[in-house]
């Protein structure tokens, strides 16, 4: 549940619905339509149907004074709609296939250090377990807003840790996010991204930024080759060893420390 949708708010919204029963009847009508046409419609048509249900309820409720802010009211209606339709529209075959490929890639690349993802500078990261848990919990949520919030909560503390984002290039950000995704191994992440893009029409600028970084990182991971990353790391290690071997001995170095007898 979103941090803004507390139990008290949901109880209050339930009372609001009870006072306006006729205005929620479209859910049953859309539900009946869905059951009768589900096998004969495309995913795009199903998305439009759910969007239409959402807009209908928002319009019906707009005729009354809401006890909530506009944002919370929207999230309550969103929660009501997707509690009825989430299981029907969340997964589609094409996204599941990519999720399977992505899961295999993450497992294959999870042992690599962040340097293998080629950031342009040394990056100091905080403890990442909370971010992993946030990403893995994304499937616990049924609304686009909650899923976006899960991604933001996972990545914002990392990318803004010690003001590192102001010093990062775009390549650095994608390297960090790719490293996090490979280690989090969040199930059905690609399907969640598709779901967000299908239904979150009111995504915030901040939410859009973080979702976009995850989308690019997913493509980066899918296009990565373990052999190439192994070779890159070998070259890095070889370069460091070469510098050590070719360094002058301490006795000949200009910075030699002289001890008094």
Automatic annotation (TrEMBL):
Single GO MF descriptor: small GTPase binding
Family annotation (InterPro entries): VPS9 (IPR003123), Vps9-like (IPR045046), VPS9_dom_sf (IPR037191)
GO cellular component: cytosol; endocytic vesicle
VPS9 domain: residues covered: 96-230
Domain of life: Eukaryota
Single GO biological process annotation from the record: vesicle-mediated transport
Protein's recorded name: VPS9 domain-containing protein
Lineage: Eukaryota, Amoebozoa, Evosea, Archamoebae, Mastigamoebida
